[in-house]
Write a structure and sequence with these properties.
The protein has two domains: 49 residues; 89 residues, no CATH class. It is mainly alpha-helical. The longest helix has 16 residues. The chain has a three-stranded parallel β-sheet.
């Protein structure tokens, strides 16, 4: 089995995130640590052979706007933080939707949670999110 440099570095980036290495590299500055990891992975993900990218948008860097500003062209799958959906926080979910629309005009985004939504799900909340998406408003 051969290992490419990109696979090695992406694996290293995941390990860095899991172990908190960026935070150790930039003590007392979580934003700078997040920026360090984001810059490290974005360069590699730009050419990664996938149709779309998913990460915890709104929970971890980069923002969609930052990803686009750095030349990110692949569609993004995400934009809704998982905890507001789980908690049934309609205002926070609408804020997430507004942030996606503001960052990318809603183009190039497959709107979804960044990760799993815990069960049980508030179906009325999901219906409201779908209605807001259909209207293109938050």
């Amino acid at each position: 089995m051969s290992t490419t440099r990109r696979d090695f570095v992406i694996g290293t980036g995941a390990t860095m995130a899991a172990t908190g290495l960026p935070s150790a590299a930039v003590p007392n500055n979580p934003a700078a640590a997040g920026e360090l990891l984001a810059a490290f992975t974005e360069e590699l993900l730009a050419d990664y052979p996938v149709a779309a990218l998913n990460w915890h948008v709104g929970e971890t860097p980069p923002t969609i706007a930052d990803y686009r500003a750095r030349g990110g062209r692949k569609p993004v799958v995400g934009g809704l933080r998982r905890m507001p959906i789980t908690a049934g926080d309609r205002a926070a979910v609408r804020a997430d939707l507004a942030a996606v629309l503001a960052a990318d005009s809603g183009r190039g985004v497959i709107l979804s949670p960044g990760c799993v939504i815990r069960h049980p799900v508030d179906r009325a909340l999901l219906a409201q999110v779908a209605a807001d998406i259909a209207k293109g408003t938050a």
